[in-house]
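Re: [help] complex structure
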Amino acid sequence: MAILETKNLSKAFGALAAVDDVSLGIEAGTLHSIIGPNGAGKTTLFNLLTGTYLPSAGRILFDGRDITGTPAHRVAHLGLARSFQRTNVFPAFSLLDNAWVAAFACGPSWEGLLWRRADRYPEVKARALAALADVGLADKAGKPVREISHGEQRQLELAIALAAAPRVLLLDEPAAGLSPEETRKLVALVRALKGRYTIVLIEHKMDIIMSVSDRISVMHFGSLIAEGTPAEIQKNPEVRRAYLGGVAA
Amino acid sequence: MKKENILLLAAVLVLPLVLRPAIASEIWIFAIFGLGLNLLLGYTGLLSFGQATFFGSAAYVAGWLLKHYGISVFLALGTGVFVGAASAALVGYLCVQRSGLYFIMLTFALNQLFYFVAYQWTSVTGGEDGMPGIPRPAFLGIDFNDPFAYYVFVSALFIVSLWIMRRIVESPLGKILQAIRENEVRAEAVGYDVARFKLAAFVIGGAFSGAAGVLYAMLFGIVPLEAIGFVTSGNVVFATLIGGSGSLYGPIIGSFVFIWLSESVSTLWARWPLLLGVAFVIVVLFLRGGVVEAWSRFWSWRSSKPKT
Ligand SMILES: Nc1ncnc2c1ncn2[C@@H]1O[C@H](COP(=O)(O)OP(=O)(O)O)[C@@H](O)[C@H]1O
Ligand SMILES: [Mg+2]
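Output below.
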């Protein structure tokens, strides 16, 4: 069964149809990639799924429930967590605090919100540390963000999403701006997360996509033009024309 | 006990011996006001330029009840806290959706609105003449008209306020407010209703401002019109920035510097605001963390110096 579904989802910015009549189903437990050239509407699709933008038309179903129009902070509590294409962390915080804030938000209770010391939530701290460990940053938990490299900030970006203990992870180009070496590391990381979460991955580095995805959807000018297994996508003539053309042909 | 707390306790004990008790009281009252502002300014990253709205409203309402109904000092205090929080809820509700300069201008504009209501409503507020004749009713035989007794009352309330504020900033709420200051978009994305948390910061800050407003009215026996004017809003921002908005103690030090300068230097030199201006420029240009940062820089410089 699809855990996350869109029905004829559209988003217009003025005359531009950034997302155009997209109907998509993400099966629970899979890694489903969304590819497409720059400006195809991939990030906008994520912004719709997470409630950051209100769709112009169409519906979003999570776990069979209609969540269209649910504000972003509530969507997070439903178990949908995202990472951002442009690193989007809490700069003055330590890595642990970055993950802690996300872990607390979606924790079991906000009891003591006003009066209990923030360091007296052992289970929240444990979850934040586990998220950092998942991305290989456990030994840097106490460091401030400005002391880690760009590659490590991309890992932190992921850890913040993981700390929420989500059911579905939306990853927007996690390898954006990384060197080949750092990219390999991050792909290994995503591969390790596969199976533990339902993952929706936006990426436009072809080699990554083909090797990790269960299914691939291809976006072009806001529309879905193809969907299938990596092998099917590679053979699809329309995809080759629209997107792979210069890369794989 | 922590170094800061020992210093503070010493200051509470020594201040009334070296300064007039009224000035010493004013320092702690202004510090409570600053603590409230700094939850918004330093922790949440919201520059409210309208804190006098809450300070003044509380002073007028509690002052009026003190004057006409002779309510007890604690009831007056409770009233002030409530009025401060309620007026901040109203102002906050209108402001939290805005950001940047719009936010600052709106807090300022709403402050002006309250000011003009106070200015026009002379039958209650006394308009430009202020609302005089506010008593300090005795409580359990303690005569608060004795400046020392009132000083003890004020400084005890300051310590309680500081304790409460410390609990708040060290709680998850404090961390969430700082996360909002650091990155609003991400805070929302990880699951916090940013507007509601900003509103909470307003209400708590307003409650502190309200407490300060009532104590101020009782200290001087009058609510002057300026208590609700933008100069008061500016002063508390000024003092907090000079002390350092990045820490819990910044506004306290700022209050000390501000009140002490305005009370002692102003009698010697009428152009004393010039001094404050200079201090402000220094802070903005070189010391974003205010006196607190200067202090910690000095200590790290001292300890890094090789011993000869
Ligand atoms: N907030 C916005 N306002 C106006 N146009 C936008 C906005 N966000 C995205 N767009 C436009 O929508 C199109 C799709 O952008 P985006 O979703 O970021 O593409 P992708 O992530 O696939 O590169 C682009 O043409 C972009 O300029
Ligand atoms: Mg994008």
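Chain B has one domain: 3-228.
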